[in-house]
Amino acid sequence: MEKHSQHSLNPRLARLSGRDVALLTRQLATLVESGMPLADALQAAAQQNRKARAKSVLLAVRSRVVEGYPLAYGLGEFPAVFDSMYRAMVLAGENAGYLGPVLTRLADHAENRQFTQQKLRMAMIYPLILMGVAAAVIAALMRFVVPELVRIFQTSNADLPLLTRILIATSNFLGDFGLALLLGVVLGLFALGRLFRNEAARLRRDHFLLRVPIVGELLRGLESARYASTLSILIGSGVPMLQALGIAGEVLGNRVLRQAAEGVRVRVEQGTSLHRALEDSAQFPPMLVHLIASGEASGELESMLSRAATTQERDTEMALGAMMSLFEPLLVVFMGGFVLLVVLAVLMPIFDLNTLVK
């Protein structure tokens, strides 16, 4: 049965959500910490998991452990599920004889990361829904309501106000070319997606994102928090510094910051202190650099990295919350202003007609 599960699962195609990885890591950590042999712990975790894909991954890893391979080797057959940081921590824990505590640390990290991502998604859902509703209302007004309201004025010989003529022209344009415009937007997004498959184009995009006001600072803060958090748990798990720096750089999504992190690793390998290498890169927030400098000076680098990650995450969440709280009323004001323009465009010809009648 185990062999069938292993052969029926393609390791390269296997994917698990962050929530599933956090759950199976917590189950495995609890079982290993209780003193259960690793193969039995993997079997029990597979039995406890309700998702077939997660169960297959665990059984495939268990089959490798039963064959005599280290756990890190079995995890390495599923690189899309267990990233390089995960595997490096497990390997360090196995070599040091502290697999249980390392798995517990990994579970904490995975759960905290999942919680942070969920908070960010929840913060973005309402503004996105509001934007969608605003776009739908505007499109409905321009496509269905406005033509009916202004039809009477189109048949008259009276000169219409400029605002009314603009509204009528816009409504006609959307009625005639709305579908073509929507198709063009979809094709444009598809073309951008194809373009960003090129590494050079992705690098230019990441450069641009970091330079966008507010967005760049938020992105830099999120990535710096991820870098510091990853580095903290790797060092705390016994992974050598240079290897930890290489892995921490790989988890960064922004390619500019990833290149900067690789430059930091090279500088540290050459003998430069970590905080000096980060400062010279000019890509990481000053607060992160200062906390790491304090950690290196006091010999508490791991705890200061963890504190730096927490500080960056908190600052980023506060900045994002402030931006969203400002964005929502601005969007409401924009919708109200647009509706006001529509009402004025319809009422102004009526006022003109009343004036002519008098």
How would the global form be characterised? elongated
What's the number of extended β-strand segments?
Answer: 0
For the terminal residues, how far apart are their CA atoms?
92 Å
Helix and strand string, N-terminal first? HHHHHHHHHHHHHHH
Q: What is the count of distinct domains?
A: 3
Gyration radius, rounded? 28 Å
Proportion of beta-strand residues: under 5%
What's the short version?
The protein has helices spanning 2-7, 18-33, 38-48, 52-66, 71-76, 84-96, 99-154, 162-195, 199-211, 215-236, 241-250, 255-269, 274-281, 286-298, 301-357.
Q: How would you portray this structure in words?
A:
It is a single chain. Residues 1-8 have low confidence and may be disordered. The protein has 3 domains: 2-82, Type II secretion system (T2SS), domain F (Receptor-associated Protein, Up-down Bundle), CATH 1.20.81.30; 113-204 and 331-357, no CATH class; 210-311, Type II secretion system (T2SS), domain F (Receptor-associated Protein). The radius of gyration is 28 Å and the shape is elongated. It contains 15 helices and no strands. It is mainly α.
